[in-house]
Amino acid sequence: MDLVEQYHALNRPEHPVCSVCVANYNGAAMLDDCLGSVLSQLGDVSIEIIVHDDASTDDSVNLLLARYPSVELLASRENVGFCKANNRMVSHARGKYVLLLNNDAALHPDAILTLVEVAGLQSPGGILTMPQYDWETDKLVDRGCLLDPFYNPVPNLDQDRREVAMVIGACFWVARDLWNDLGGFPEWLESIGEDMYLCCVARLRGRPVHVTRTSGYRHRQGVSFGGNRVNRGKLSTTLRRRRLSERNKTRVMVICTPTWLVWPLLAVHMAELVLEGIAVTLSRRDRRVWREVYRPTLKSVLSGTLELRQRRRGQQAQRQATLRGYLHAFTWFPHKLRLLFRHGVPSIR
Q: What is the spatial distance between Cα 184 and Cα 194, in angstroms, rounded to a whole number?
């Protein structure tokens, strides 16, 4: 078992309202912005800050020890990934609520006060996020996301829409008791899609996923995992990100889509992936795209059918939402086609 060194913080609040959990890997250059935004929050809300350092090779640990004595630092000896890092922090947290915050993000000054107020109005309690703004341009990126039929996230830009299908893990607010009931981030996904999975599971169980109308956070999109943003009109990503994204979205689709509709949807999705993989591979003239993205995705679904069915039975047995209620936050035009028309074939490196 991986050993974790715990550096106990000074002046840690005894009964915090919120535990801010920051997963860090080689983020020394961004931590001042991230933690500074938390420490400068407005309002009288008791906050504890927990940082899990995932075996960074930069100066992150020394920086945290020297500059942030009030932060609870969990320094891992091995790189364990985003899901396990967040699960460790939440199991260590004491707040009524937890806010998962990326190390490449920074909160608006009234963010936590806003989240506490809105969470108090949720009935039943659910998952929350805030409007996301691009770090460099300060333009609105999304107000949470809808999902298309193939579980591709579709940015919500409607200021009047409160209910969304999912929120990203860069700024993810949830009551700690609900996190534990839902089971936390699924470590079998490795990375990418864990936020989608937990939001879909919550909505299956009749729990809302909402975005606040005010406040927000700034985010350096794609810095922590590469890609996932538009540069000069072109969408850029990486082979690893695309592989994990395609595989994990498909897994979430199989596990969470209610009723028998999942099976024809999966068949259409698999055919779409084959055609897409061939088209992108040929357009990029790079066999690695098929070999490292699409073939592993198709293989993982076909070889893991039994395991996916078992996970599906477990989640569907606890479903409280109606099919209509679950699909209310979906949009029916495939998002990849919209991106293709707008930005062309993505750059994959």
A: 9
Separation between Cα atoms, residue 196 and residue 194, nearest integer Å: 5
CB neighbours of residue 57 within 10 Å: 8
Q: Give the contacts of 11 (CB within 8 A, at least 6 positions apart).
A: 70
Secondary element (H or E) of residue 244: helix 239-256
The pLDDT tens digits for 1-51 are 465 666 666 667 788 999 999 999 999 999 999 999 999 999 989 999 999
102, 224 contact by CB (below 8 A): yes
**What is the C-alpha end-to-end distance of the chain, expressed in Å?**
34
Distance CA 24, CA 65 (A): 14
Residue-wise pLDDT for 59-95, tens only, equals 999 999 999 999 999 999 999 999 999 999 999 999 9
SS3 18: strand
Sequence ranges of the chain with CATH classification 3.90.550.10:
4-219
Smallest CA-to-CA distance from 94 within 171, 156, 12, 154 is with 12
Beta strands in 13-119 (DSSP E): 18-24, 47-53, 72-76, 97-101, 105-107
For the domain covering 4-219, report its CATH number. Answer: 3.90.550.10
d(CA 290, CA 83): 27
Please tell me the pTM assigned to this model.
0.93
Q: How far apart are CA 245 and CA 173, in angstroms?
A: 22
Strands laid side by side in the 72-76 sheet: 4-7, 72-76, 47-53, 18-24, 97-101, 171-175, 127-129, 209-211
The upper half-sphere exposure of residue 150, i.e. CA atoms within 13 Å in the direction of its Cβ, equals 17
Interatomic CA distance for residues 311 and 206, integer angstroms: 18
Q: Sort 40 into a burial class: Cβ within 10 Å, 0-12 / 13-18 / 19+.
A: exposed
